[in-house]
Amino acid sequence: MTAQTLALTGTAFHTPERGRLEVLEEHLFCVDAQGRIDAVLPPNHPQYGARKEAARQAGALVELSDGQFLLPGLVDLHIHAPQWPQMGKALDVPLEVWLQKYTFPLEARYVDVGYAREVYADLVDNLLANGTTTALYFATVHVEASLALAEICLEKGQRALVGKVVMDDPEQCPPFYRDADAILAVSDTRRFIEAVRALDGGERPLVLPVITPRFIPSCTDEALSGLGELARDYGCHVQTHCAESDWAKAFVEQRFGRTDAASLDGFGLLTRHTILAHSNFIDGEDMDLIERQGAGVAHCPLSNFYFANAVFPLREALDRHMHVGLGTDISGGYSPSLFDGCRHALSASRTLQSGVHAGLPAHERGASGEPITHLEAFWLATAGGAEALDLPTGSFRVGHDFDALLIDTRASASNVHVGKAEDTLEDVFQKIVLNAARANIAKVWVRGRTVVGR
């Protein structure tokens, strides 16, 4: 084993398939010099002892102590990076008011790259400390500030997909914050894509560029067409908002005479590497189209309660085998923790399936189908999100990147109580999903590199 190789022994939990928990009790996890999982060995494997001892001799062995467990790193499919200073306020108004009164003035400040670097450094540090090892970011319209976010993610070791936002329609975007025109919006996006690829130009870049029309209402047809051509030419990821609110849904249907998803597809923006944020108001035909194109949905349960006045039909989407993961939607969502995201997803699903109107008979209150389970919620936050992005992370599979959290249930200020006599390992996993907080995250690795903790 080389000096760069890492090996860990202890018990890990992961959900490699939706709804299935795999407990890897006292396994040895071997990580190669490129940060990929080279082997996952049970204690009775013939190579277990030799490989563990070799790692110990090389000073590369991490042994989990009692009450500590490994989890895959968390994958956040929807973050507005410039809105970090706004998180936790201004959630008392409708979406269109929230954007115009609070959000666009804040995002306009990122013309100052120094301000951008200060905010983004704090954001990335906090997200890593909360266990987010992969982040899909909306930045702003500014190329230089958006590039600064990509640079900071690379420096700090977070896997990131970063998009320079496009919003060029003067009828919908304020004069102080928009692209000057469609031609400049598309050319700046091209320049941004090439600059990010130059930053991290290896075979396995940690930071990737994303084509990012904010949403259809903020973009002209010319900009959407140009971005669709870029998606075809560069083959990179695409992200946008889709059918988030009644207002946005009605706006698109009045403009094009078809749904948000169908309109994006018409512009070439619905691809295997597209992530659609929210998608609360998609119908069955939209779901079929999204599934057929291989695109994914970033389910943002907390912000949906505030800005959608509706609950995303998660069970139906999963039953149709769509790609779905979780997004915090900072700052439309007020928590940076994807553990909280799991809990909000559970609450939203139960709310939809069981109903909330006490004045109706029980059998009339909710939608059909079963609410999601804690296993499915955690899958959404890990393997489900990774699959939506088509990236090799989210579970402890051989060949996947070693992105992991060391959860310490005995940490100071822990909300996770483990009773040795009464709690099975499956019980411990459920308690972690429902109760773990930042205090329990003792260490974080991305691609085998320690990014949080010593």
Give your account of this protein's structure.
There is one protein chain. The protein has two domains: 124 residues, Urease, subunit C, domain 1, CATH 2.30.40; 316 residues, Metal-dependent hydrolases (TIM Barrel, Alpha-Beta Barrel). The model has no long low-confidence stretch (mean pLDDT 95). It has 15 helices and 16 strands. α3 packs parallel to α4, α4 packs parallel to α5 and α12 crosses α14. The chain starts with 5 loop residues before the first strand and ends with a strand.
Produce a short descriptive summary.
This protein is 39% helix and 22% strand. With 454 residues, the chain is α/β, with parallel strands linked by helices. It folds into two domains: 6-72 and 396-452, Urease, subunit C, domain 1, CATH 2.30.40; 74-389, TIM Barrel (Alpha-Beta Barrel), CATH 3.20.20.
CATH superfamily name of the largest domain?
Metal-dependent hydrolases
Shape: globular
Based on the structure given, which CATH architecture of the largest domain is correct? Alpha-Beta Barrel
The DSSP helix count reads: 15
Would you count the extended β strands for me? 16
CATH class of the largest domain: Alpha Beta
Query: Percent of residues in beta strands?
Result: 15-25%
Give the spatial strand order of the biggest sheet: 6-7-8-9-10-11-12-13
Structural class: alpha/beta
Mean pLDDT: 95
Poorly predicted regions: none
In total, the number of domains comes to 2
